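Risk register update: the risk of archive-format incompatibility is retired. Evidence:
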Amino acid sequence: MRVLVTGGAGYIGSHTVLQLLRERHEVLVYDNFSNSAPESLRRVKQLANADVALREGDIRDGAALGASFAEFQPEIVVHFAGLKAVGESTEKPLDYYSQNVSGSLELLRLMTQHGCKRIVFSSSATVYGDAHYLPIDESHVLQPTNPYGRTKHFIEEIIRDWSASVPGSCAVLLRYFNPVGADASGRIGEDPMGIPNNLFPYIAQVAVGRRPHLNIFGADYDTRDGTGERDYIHVEDLARAHFAAITYAAKSHGCEAINIGTGKSATVLEMVKAFEAASGRKIPYQIVDRRAGDVARMVADAGKAEALLGWKARLTIADMAATTWNWQINNPDGY
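Archived output:
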């Protein structure tokens, strides 16, 4: 299939593009490189021994995005492009609504204009907010606690309404939990701009000496050791989930929200210990105040993904730590 991937040079996007190329899909990446690097796609091409088309642009730029649609004529869109830091979203909510929501509206408008009726959307478990029960299934109430999560929720509802209005369309909303890890090659991985907002790249940068210590945001949560507890999913498993979602969307109609997680959880301190075991290095840390918008515990019920997509997570926390370390030690300064 011809697959247009917005934000395809980013962390999850690049791993998904690699998976799609290995499965012999034709791919066009559309990215503005606000939190990614063209080098990631150069390496993806080498790893897959296949070419990928690239267009630089913002998804809010209808003329540039429309030209890409006209040229490539995609059969399906995988939509990653957007801002994604919980803490930053509370400080700059209008930036998040502009980039994430307005950009998605422009994307859907152009999909309709060019007759593209299938989309896989990069959503997030943040749409659930504080857990009313665990593990969280797709029927859980949606009450996001921060602007980032609210943009994902709003986009989901917009896509749902769009799908209902377009005969023969299919939309898959992948609500994934906490992606970590890197490709086994060590050639591509997570390389955030500036100070990392996610746990594992921060730990990895501490391990290679780029940062003096890890800040742990709160140690007074109602969890096993007081630190936040999450369902971490390996990015390679996540890339496989996107491939499975594309396969499902190609032969299905309607709109489905699907959790992507392992069904298991780990605390921040447990992840620190896993990384210390993988790297052989001590990770110094400091406990600081809780971060606005964070929740105590998040664990997925991923049964629907297995039932509808035939997908199930394979890789462990040890794999996540080992591949992250392999990426970081071979790329101490990122791309």
